[in-house]
Amino acid sequence: MAETHSTTPLTIRRGARRRGRRRLRWLVWLAAAIVVLVLLAAGAGVLWLYIAERHALPMMDGTLHVPGLSLPVIVRRDQHGVPHIEAATQDDLWFAQGYVTAQERLWQMDMFRRRSNGELAEVLGAKMLEHDRIQRILLIKKTAERIYRNLPADDRNRLDEYARGVNEYIAQSEAASHLPAEFRLLHYQPKPWTGADSVSVGMMEVQELDTHAATKLNRWLIQAKLNDPRLEADLYPVGSWRDHPPTGTMIDLTQPQPPVAQPRNDDDDDDENTETLNSGQIGGQNGRQPSGARAQNDSLAASNDELAWEALGRPVCTGCVVGSNEWVIAGKHTASGKPLLSNDMHIQVTEPNIWYMAALRAPGFNAAGVTLPGYPFIVAGHNQHVAWGFTDLYADVQDLYFENLDGKGNYQAIDGSWKPLNLDRETIHVRGGKDVTVDVQSTDHGPLVNSIVHLGQPMALKWNLYDPSLNTIPLYAMNVASNWAEFSAALKDWCWPGQNLVYSDD
Fold first, then answer.
1. SS (H, E, C) 172-213
2. How far is CA 400 from the centre of its chain?
3. Is 387 helix (H, G, I), strand (E, B) or coil?
């Protein structure tokens, strides 16, 4: 049967074709106009940022009229941009150190104290709420305020003078609309600086360097998995640091063994045997773990990362190995006859860097080195007689305790009696959102942190930072020491963080 098709001729009119081309031209022009507007907006933004940042730069030459000084202060910057501050009195020196540091690092200082105090969500929004909640539970701000209140009067006065200098810079910058661009982009004004804020910045470093409770938690997780004291003892030898965990695999010495690879020169950085030999100390035969042990290890490592490292303050960085260098050589081994001291603190590199170099001079004080923005004095460096440097000790200063609660707001003390939980009610301000209230419960050991590590059992963190008898930060005494007797006397009051220290003098 034959098929038939009926077709209608397609007619294209010239007017329709012209309208299509006109519409296309308009679309092209519109797209071009949008691109131009975007480029102009971006250029305007870059220009605004350039002008704002230039206005926020410190004044390098000339005279600044700064209320609050008893006598003029001279600030000279060397070829590396390091400020050398000379004052007629020590009070003026701390004031000037606060002012000059704020000239270059005010945004960093504000972030440091907000990070430590758990106040980032107030300016950065809800994404920082969990961080702030953890900081409130760890009682960092409350602890800093307690330490500040209990400092000797002279030390409190130095922190207060530093804070006055910071606040004078804030006031002048606000009046001239020269605050750093970050404040203007986020549309907020920095709060006045306080002496307790300086202590909070110091506590930020204590938290960074003395937070090792995750190791305890990880061991408890491993213990729960193994459920065998003998295996746990093998994994955690209690001898010297030279002890290593067992390989985990029994070797049948009745069978032929593969030849042992010859060691290569220790100076050869490309030694391919190094990784295998090191792995062999912790793995199975030929440096590899049995698949079951590997799977369990991975599971525990994942739990550790999730439950502890990030929550309790240590950064999560797979494969990272932390550590620092310091050494000192006596004068009898040097060409000059004077000692040599070197210190390389491997704190994570940031922009701006965590350290701010400065040289400070006033009657009775003459020291130079690195400072911590937000805190006065020299952290590591030298004066005209002594030099010193630090590396972290990773001391055992934290413990975790499972607590017995009765569900009525009480916990069981060590003597078996029941005591009411200490309660601190913290309010977190959230930008663009509602305030969040956090109830922090504590026992005699410390705050309950089970909501941080997400374990159902009530767990308290005991930390020497919470010890009410520890309230000294002896940096000033170290800065002015002129010999080992004075320097070591200052170190007797060192509380935290646990550090290794190298020292030399003239």
1. HHHHCCCCCHHHHHHCCCCCCCCHHHHHHHHHHHHHHHCCCH
2. 22
3. strand
Is the pLDDT assigned to residue 288 strictly greater than 50? no
Close Cβ partners of 190 (under 8 Å, ≥ 6 residues apart): 106, 110, 170, 179, 183
Rg (CA), the chain: 31
Asked if 238 and 248 touch (Cβ cutoff 8 Å), the reply is no
Residues in the chain: 506
Report yes or no: 340 and 329 within 8 Å, Cβ to Cβ: yes
**Residue 279 has what pLDDT?**
26
DSSP state of 433: S
Residue 36: phi and psi, rounded to 5, are -60, -45
- Residue 200 has phi, psi (to 5 degrees) of -60, -40
- Give the three-state DSSP class for 336: coil
155-172 pLDDT, tens digit per residue, is: 999 999 999 999 999 999
What does pTM read for this prediction? 0.78
User: Smallest Cα–Cα separation from 497: which of 465, 467, 466?
Assistant: 465
- Find all residues with CB under 8 Å of 23, minimum gap 6, and list them: none
Q: Mark out the alpha helices in 62-152 (DSSP H runs).
A: 90-117, 121-124, 129-137, 140-150
The model's pLDDT over 203-234, given as tens digits with 9 standing for 90+, comes to 999 998 888 888 888 888 888 888 888 888 88
Residue 447, beta-bridge partner list: 442
**pLDDT score at 357:** 97
Which is nearest to 362 in space by CA: 89, 105, 163?
Answer: 89
Q: What SS3 class is residue 412? A: strand
Q: Say if strands 386-392 and 83-86 run parallel, antiparallel, or are unpaired.
A: unpaired
